[in-house]
Amino acid sequence: MAYATAHHEEHHDEHDEGITVMGFWLFLVTDCILFGALFATYAVLVNHTASGLTGKEFFEVPGFVSETFILLTSSFTSGLAVLSMHKGKIKPLIGWLIVTLLLGMCFVGLEIHEFQTMVHEGATISTSAFFTAFYTLVSTHGLHVSVGIIWMISITIQLKRYGITSVTKRKVTIISLYWHFLDAVWIFLYTVVYLMGVM
Amino acid sequence: MENHGSLKAYTIGFIFSIILTVIPLMLVLNHVFAKNILLASILGMALLQFFIQLFFFMHIKDGEKPRYNVMALILGIVFVITIVAGSIWIMTFNSQVQ
């Protein structure tokens, strides 16, 4: 009887997790729409530079290319963390999460540095409609990454404290989905904002 | 829910993503094509990389059937295309109205 109950609960947990991951997918889809609206704004305003500075004068190829590769690599390492988790290995799991975190912090640091340089050179958010759209779009993504970093730190602490349980497993699954999603959004930022900007 | 991807899948996704990041960069920096073809090819490669990450990183094909996540994603993509393409299209009339 005890076995039956335990088995039932386990089954119940699995079902709950499926629903939670599904719910998180729905959040990602709505987040997609948020970014879609910001991309639409950017596309409409990209030539409204108030006959002044454009992105071409400001976007630095080495800067945004390294941001791209750092984020892509961090997406890969968060995947490696999930793989270690499914093998039940907590040390590599925490290790890969920390690598992902450090790469994420490098990314945010580079982005802040990029913004600082641009503002110093005279391109602030109120310079023109183009820069308003640019800063809004790129910093919304940067904010998502920053939130992801705080979130991932807290999950790493929980893993240290509780080990790999069904709850922490679910949390790692969800944060890695979130992290992959941010990298997927960045593909379009890289292409639409930066590559088309320096074209 | 048993299929959580493999090291192979992640590595393939990673390598393809790197290739699809480097090629458009080279095309843009070297001004290989005329502007329209260049735009189409870099956007095409971005879309391709997006789908590669969906399959190899986010394992969109995994999970129990029916795949509500795929349905939700398709609906989301329809919304995004409508918002982006619709905004660009409607704003081309801006100059005529003014």
TrEMBL record, chain A:
Ranges for domain Heme-copper oxidase subunit III family profile: 1-198
Main location as per UniProt: membrane
Keyword Ion transport: no
Subcellular location: Cell membrane
Gene Ontology terms: biological process: aerobic electron transport chain
Membrane topology (UniProt): Multi-pass membrane protein
GO MF term list: cytochrome bo3 ubiquinol oxidase activity; cytochrome-c oxidase activity
The keyword Ribonucleoprotein belongs to this UniProt entry's keyword annotation: no
Family: Belongs to the cytochrome c oxidase subunit 3 family.
Task of the protein: Cytochrome bo(3) ubiquinol terminal oxidase is the component of the aerobic respiratory chain of E.coli that predominates when cells are grown at high aeration. Has proton pump activity across the membrane in addition to electron transfer, pumping 2 protons/electron.
Protein name: Cytochrome bo(3) ubiquinol oxidase subunit 3
Gene source species: Priestia megaterium
TrEMBL record, chain B:
Entry annotated with the keyword Metal-binding: no
Alphabetized GO MF terms: cytochrome bo3 ubiquinol oxidase activity; proton transmembrane transporter activity
Keywords annotated in UniProt: Cell membrane, Electron transport, Membrane, Oxidoreductase, Transmembrane, Transmembrane helix, Transport
Alphabetical list of Pfam families matching this protein: COX4_pro (PF03626)
Homology family: Belongs to the cytochrome c oxidase bacterial subunit 4 family.
Membrane protein topology class: Multi-pass membrane protein
Domain of life the protein comes from: Bacteria
GO cellular component: cytochrome o ubiquinol oxidase complex; plasma membrane
Lineage: Bacteria, Bacillati, Bacillota, Bacilli, Bacillales
Name listed for the protein in its UniProt record: Cytochrome o ubiquinol oxidase subunit IV
Record's keyword annotation contains Cell membrane: yes
Species this chain originates from: Priestia megaterium (Bacillus megaterium)
Primary localisation category: membrane
Name of encoding gene: cyoD
Membrane-traversing stretches: 12-31, 37-58, 70-91
Localization (cell): Cell membrane
GO BP annotations, alphabetical order: aerobic electron transport chain; electron transport coupled proton transport
